[in-house]
Fold:
Amino acid sequence: MAGFDPPTRCPWCGTDPLYVSYHDDEWGRPERDPRKLFELLILESFQAGLAWITILRKRDGFRAAFQGFDPALLATWGEPEVQRLLANPAIVRHRGKIEGTIRGAQAFLWIEAAQGFSPFLWSFVNGQTLQRHAKTMSDIPGHSPESLAMSKALKREGFNFVGPTITYAFMQAAGLVNDHLVTCLARERQT
Structure:
């Protein structure tokens, strides 16, 4: 049909099968499970300064090393576990990020008990996915007022490596914001 452009994928995922699968089946889907949100936030914090594909390729290694991202368990860890993780090639070995994960688990437990981790995070978008209508990648911001507010709140609670760019990437991944391009085949599945 003349003038019809078939749907395509967001170009950031390229053609790598792992990245394509992540784009099509996970990225941008609204997530409300607190443990899954915690895992995703921690993985995004490890991504700081790296490409997301690096973290994605190591995700299974992270899950094993951090024992399923169980916040109650991680909150009890100390220097022996930090040393063990620093020697583990299956993850990104960064002392500050590892120690930050332990502090983040402690913060998660406090937030979960006080108001629920999922409601806390979703409150920055009034409980509903923000629908962006980007036509090109250059239309997508690197951060937003919501990600700045989330960043500040998470830091107050004890998280680190959660600047506004990281929290925006987290919001995109967890479906708090829908940044699939308007031409993307996965856009409408993000509900």
